[in-house]
C-alpha cells in the first residue's frame, strides 16, 4: 500500500538516500528542508510526479500545519546534527531538535504514523563489556543527545510511533557528511595517510547509510508489530573502539598510520557498546558491512574534499 509521506529535513544526509528509496517503493513523498547547506541532493527526484519539495522551516506553524494535515506518515529528519554544531548554535539546536517535535505532535491525529530517527549517543558512557539495550537508562552527555532523548520520549507517547536509535552512520550519500567518524577517518587515511587519536579506546557502534534508509522501509512494512517502541539500529559485529576502526581502515589503505596522542582528550565522550537484538528480532538485518563502506568511501574520496561536506 502506498502512503503520502512527509519527510522533514529530507535533503540531508539520511534523507538524500531515503527519499529516492521511498519513491522507489511507490510512495508519494513531500520533503520540507531549509537547504541550509545549499545542497541539490534531491535533484534526481524532481522528475518523479510523486515527489514534492518545499523550501521552508520546520519551526513555522504556518508552514507545517498544512503539510502535516495531508500526510499519512511523518519521518522527522530535520535536525541540527552532532554535538559540535549544536554547541555552535544552541538555541537553533533546541528549537529544531526538540521544540519543533513538540509542536508537530500537537498538530497530529492519533491515526498518523511517525517513524523518527534519534541517536544511540543517548547512552552516553556505558559500562565496560556490557551491551546497551533499549532498556538501558539513557544518560546523554551533550546538548544534542539531551534534546534527542527528550524528543524520543515525546514521540513514543504518540499513539502511532516508533523510533530508531541510530548507530554512528557511515557511507556515501548525495548530501555527504565527512565529519562522521568512519567517513572522517577514511578521508584522513586517503588524503593525509595519518590520524592522531584522542582516547582511542572509546567504543561505539556503526551502520551504513543505505541500511539506515532500509530500516525505515522495514518499519513502514511492519509498523503495526513494531509501533510504540525504540529500536537500536547498528551492525552487531561493529562495536569498535577508535583504534580498532583505524586498524580496519589500515587493511584497505596501505601506509595509513594512526597513533594515540599522549596528551589531550576527545570532546565527544561517548563510550558504549550496543545490542541490536530487538530490531534483528523483527526480521531486519543490515546488508552492508564496515568493510563495504570503507571500500565505497575510498572510491568516493577520489571525487570530493572535506571543506564542503561537513556539519562543522
Please explain how this structure is put together.
- 35% of the residues lie in helices and 20% in strands.
- By secondary structure, the protein is α/β, with parallel strands linked by helices.
- It folds into two domains: 4-170 and 206-233, NAD(P)-binding Rossmann-like Domain (Rossmann fold), CATH 3.40.50; 181-204 and 237-274 and 287-308, Alpha-Beta Complex (UDP-galactose 4-epimerase, domain 1).
- Strands 3-2-1-4-5-7-11 form a seven-stranded parallel beta sheet, with helices on both faces. Strands 8-10-12 form a three-stranded mixed beta sheet. The protein has a two-stranded parallel sheet with strand order 6-14.
- The longest helix is centred in the N-terminal third of the chain and has 17 residues, at 90-106.
Task: Write a concise keyword list for the protein shown above.
312 residues, Rossmann fold, UDP-galactose 4-epimerase, domain 1, 2 domains, 7-stranded parallel β-sheet, 11 helices, 14 strands
**What general outline do the C-alpha atoms trace?**
globular
The largest sheet has its strands arranged as: 3-2-1-4-5-7-11
Helix vs. strand class: alpha/beta
Content of β-strand: 15-25%
The CATH homologous superfamily of the largest domain is termed NAD(P)-binding Rossmann-like Domain
- Give the SSE string: EHEEHEHHEEHEEHEEHHEEHEEHH
Characterize the quaternary organization of these chains. single chain
CATH class of the largest domain: Alpha Beta
Mean pLDDT: 93
List how many beta strands DSSP finds: 14
- The parts where pLDDT drops under 50 for at least 5 residues are none
SS field, number of helical segments: 11
The radius of gyration is 19 Å
Please tell me the CATH architecture of the largest domain by its name. Answer: 3-Layer(aba) Sandwich
